[in-house]
């Protein structure tokens, strides 16, 4: 079975409210998937305080309760001990051990994984990707439409890379679908939702969610026809309470759409269960 895992940063579950941009008028496809194909899962992981990216993502991609391991929720990029934990064991390493073809579809604007490894600050997904360097997508891959930019449309890199054309979110979905057809497991990370959530700007949040929804709508059309399973979850809430600058303790959606979707939804109750469920059902 082929799986696309969409990691979307900072999107929690909350009822309708005037300051909640996650609504059917703004993002109809996301809301439909949440309503019909998701379960609410816990991102707080039994540790007080607001959930944060480093520990939330580490939990998602290792199956270890990283806030408990660290004794707290850790923001941003993982520090040395959490990095070591991710490097020892993670979803990409496990999938590779199972003989699966794995790809991290987000393009890094580098020529090689070695160049990426030399960077000082690395996100959880970067640390994980570097444990299986062949999964890393480079500038060349982006130019070949064999990788997807983190903003979907490449608009944010036009000043540095004017030769790489801007594309529509639907094109980005087509590119991701092409990558997924060549692999057993494809990860795509989108963090503009978290950035917009921190901005407390409702209009900006709506623009980001509308863009992502166009991408998602096209992607599920392609994957449904091809029998590819789409999974989606978030590391913590944020954008659904746009009047709050920080993250939220709201549950996050775990969406499973496609073959074995019910198996996935039955077995995932928190971020801890995501990696074990993928390893079990892929
Ligand atoms: Zn954040």
Brief overview, please?
The protein is an alpha/beta fold. It has helices at residues 28-37, 53-62, 66-70, 80-88, 91-97, 113-117, 124-130, 139-143, 169-181, 192-199, 202-226, 261-267, 274-281; strands at residues 3-8, 38-41, 102-104, 185-190, 229-233, 252-257. The protein has a 6-stranded mixed sheet, sandwiched between helices.
Task: Explain what this protein looks like in three dimensions.
By secondary structure, the protein is α/β, with parallel strands linked by helices. It has a single domain, classed as Alkaline Phosphatase, subunit A, CATH 3.40.720.10. About 40% of the residues lie in helices and about 10% in strands. The protein is built from 13 helices and six strands. The protein has helices at about 30-35, 55-60, 65-70, 80-90, 90-95, 115, 125-130, 140-145, 170-180, 190-200, 200-225, 260-265, 275-280, and strands spanning about 5-10, 40, 100-105, 185-190, 230-235, 250-255. Strands 2-6-5-1-4-3 form a six-stranded mixed β-sheet, sandwiched between helices.
């Amino acid at each position: 079975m082929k799986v696309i895992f969409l990691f979307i940063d900072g999107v929690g579950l909350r009822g309708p409210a005037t300051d909640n941009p996650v609504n059917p008028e703004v993002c109809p496809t996301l809301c439909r998937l949440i309503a019909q194909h998701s379960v609410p899962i816990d991102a707080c992981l039994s540790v007080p305080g607001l959930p944060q990216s480093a520990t939330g993502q580490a939990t998602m991609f290792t199956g270890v309760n990283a806030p408990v391991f660290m004794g707290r929720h850790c923001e941003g990029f993982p520090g040395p001990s959490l990095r070591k934990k991710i490097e020892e064991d993670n979803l990409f390493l496990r999938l590779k051990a199972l003989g699966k073809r794995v790809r991290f579809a987000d393009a890094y604007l580098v020529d090689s994984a070695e160049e990426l490894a030399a960077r000082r600050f690395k996100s959880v997904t970067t640390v994980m990707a570097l444990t299986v360097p062949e999964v890393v997508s480079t500038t060349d891959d982006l130019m070949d439409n064999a990788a997807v930019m983190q903003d979907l449309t490449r608009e944010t890199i036009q000043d540095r890379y004017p030769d790489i054309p801007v594309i529509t979110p639907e094109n980005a979905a087509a590119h991701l679908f092409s990558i997924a057809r060549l692999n057993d497991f494809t990860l795509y990370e989108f963090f503009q939702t978290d950035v917009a959530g921190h901005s407390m700007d409702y209009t900006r949040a709506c623009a980001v969610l509308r863009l992502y929804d166009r991408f998602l709508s096209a992607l599920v059309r392609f994957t449904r026809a091809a029998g590819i399973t789409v999974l989606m979850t978030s590391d913590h809430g944020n954008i659904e309470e746009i009047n709050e600058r920080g993250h939220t303790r709201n549950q996050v959606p775990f969406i499973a759409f496609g073959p074995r979707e019910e198996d996935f939804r039955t077995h995932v109750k928190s971020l801890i269960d995501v990696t074990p469920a993928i390893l079990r059902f892929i």
